[in-house]
Amino acid sequence: MQLPDYKEARKRNKNYQRIEYVIDKKLKDKYQGKTYYIRTYGCQMNEHDTENIKAILEQLGLKEIDNMNKADIVLLNTCSIRENAHNKAFGMLGRLKHLKEERKDLIVGLCGCMAQETGVIEEILKNYPWVNFVFGTHNMYNLPEILDEAITTKKQQIEVFSKEGDLIEDIPVKRENKFKAYVNIIYGCDKFCTYCIVPFTRGGERSRKKEDILKEIEKLVQDGYKEVTLLGQNVNAYGKDIYDDYGLGELLEDVAKTKIPRIRFMTSHPWDFTSKMVDVIAKYDNIMPAIHLPVQSGSDRILKLMGRRYTKEKYLKLFKEIREKVKGCTISTDIIVGFPNETEEDFEETIDLVNICKFDNAFTFIYSPRENTPAAKLKDNVTIEEKEKRLYKLNEIVNGYFKENNEKLVGETVKVLTEGESAKKDNYYGYTDTNKLINFTGKKLQPGDLVNVKVTEAKTWSLDGVLDE
Ligand code: SAH
Ligand code: SF4
Ligand code: F3S
Description:
3 domains; 6-stranded parallel beta sheet; 5-stranded mixed barrel; 21 strands; binds S-adenosyl-L-homocysteine; binds iron/sulfur cluster
């Protein structure tokens, strides 16, 4: 049994090795005939981890089914970012408990970011002895052994390394989508924003070698993929740990040259977003003009308390540079309201910034204290009613801009990657270059088709259009 420890998790290991994943021959296909079901919470990184976990389970001979009630193994890939993510996972464990009472042989596992939290593991040890296995974000490659131990010994298995281990390459992947793919470029986060648990749950920043990334993308191009999203908690830090003069700008340029039709990347921290990166994004047509640039707050005082390393002015300068250089670029953001002791004036600074930036999309959250983070120790004098009021007001304003920006596109022709057909015949949906959802009418299209669509109507969260032949 290996349990998480925050002191260890805070440390950064710069001497990791690159290791290739191999499955133990004895375990290959051992569980043929059995089925699994995975429920995933959280961000794209977790979604992509789930794609790896599925492929690992299938090497053991397991088959995926979409009915949790019938599966032999149920796994929850969890998220710690806010309290409601926690509550959802514990709520699901409650349901699984009932299921397990009916079917004693059901195997239940938990993995992902919650597995890295000391409090969660203590809770599982105390109140959830029937959970068969838990593994952390740094232990995924050991899943075959952990699962096999849990099944054969019938004893609870908990394996969570606090600190990142080696960087494992060639983990198999079962991609959800046949034309859009996630590709990890950097793991972990060293920013330690004071409210955030991710540097503890995901470990230190570790970049994959450019050759490994480009090989993966070239294979995706050969397989007919149309879009890649380069993933990392902070993609802008790419390369800093392993190269002297090769960063995200250089990587984007090399990825653009693979001729993959669409490249996206997320998430960018405004702090180390360089002009070189902006220039590369502007230069290549296959780097999509849509940037997610979380601001969190418009108040310098709060930004400082959050440890974000930029001011409102610096953010606005970068915002303007992107808008000027990258034609038609949309910018989306994340905002937290109700950070401890956020005053009405601080909140008004955020509203002011939103009124300047008129974001194309924004994910807005009420601050949620997370175990062991510095912000969780701050005294907070903002009532929950006040926080809710601010969130409501902010949402009214950001939603207004989504609609306003979308209205500007009516009558224009936009490039769309078709995702699928909706319930109505000859109705399709997809995403524009600028990452806007569009529903459109057309004929005989296949998922993965890149088409031109004329925008006919604007809504708050989507566009309507017709195929422009
Ligand atoms: N790495 C990304 C963010 C990942 S988490 C970045 O730095 O931009 C996604 C979003 O969740 C954050 O941008 C933030 O807005 C929100 N978030 C993170 N921790 C939070 C907390 N404790 N309470 C509320 N929102 C939080
Ligand atoms: Fe969290 Fe900040 Fe890292 Fe983003 S950059 S994952 S908000 S610590
Ligand atoms: Fe959640 Fe972990 Fe992602 S905390 S947002 S799943 S990195």
